[in-house]
Write a structure and sequence with these properties.
Length: about 290
Amino acid sequence: MADNTENGKIYTLQDGGLYHLLERLNGKISAAGGGADVTALEERVAALEDVVFGTPTFELLSDLSEFDAAGGSVEIEYSTNGSSVTAATDSDWLTATASQIAKLGENPTVKITAEKNSGTEERSGVVTVTVTFASPLGYTYTKDFTIAVTQAASAAHTFSIETDPSDATVTINGVKTDSVEAVDGTEITWTVERSGYVTQSGAYVMGASDYTLSVSLDEVPEYFNVLDYGATADGTTDDTGAFDSALAAAVEYGAYVLVPSGTYYLGSTLYLDDRDMKLQGEGGSVLTGKI
């Protein structure tokens, strides 16, 4: 009787033993060349090899703690009888790689990395470790092992807007509300408006604490001054953009555009006939260029 040890299991090569049966099945598979019968034979070989030689094994040797919201990386030691190990994830916020045994006495690791969780909900993912095991008969088998990963949510903070006048309408991120909950790093867009007042809008990136923004609206003026919109009146700098912006504001609120004394160069044509707009100059206002 000859006892042989493979991967921690003992098998006996006599009594028409399993080892010889595997060899015979192996020969039949090679001769058949494919089809349902071959599939059935391969399943029988796999079952018998599990008895004789064992199947892929994978065991974590250290615990994986839950990731906090900031994310990061952790390396988990493992042991296996596999000839190769790969790792993959089911989530785009997770990555994983598996190292191979470098030398005897050193356990390989699975490195898992989680990106920052900017959401207000805890999230979970799965790392799938695929172990390939090569049997002495030349067959290879693979088996998947899973590692559950969770990550804490980011703490939410309150962004709110106080207005003057107090009855102004506030819109935050497209919704009429004066406050929202958001996590650190979230960009917030806002608009404050009221009839008879000039609308204000802007953006804010949420920090690590609550924040209240105070917005005071100005009453719609009788006119909009082109100098307030960047006009230089030096006769050489192109002031077309300033005129366009002032005219657009004037049309929106039913006011007129004031052009103080100075020489304004317009590098592009300024169209007035298709909009209900008014230009009012002061003594010494000169427009040059494409008008």
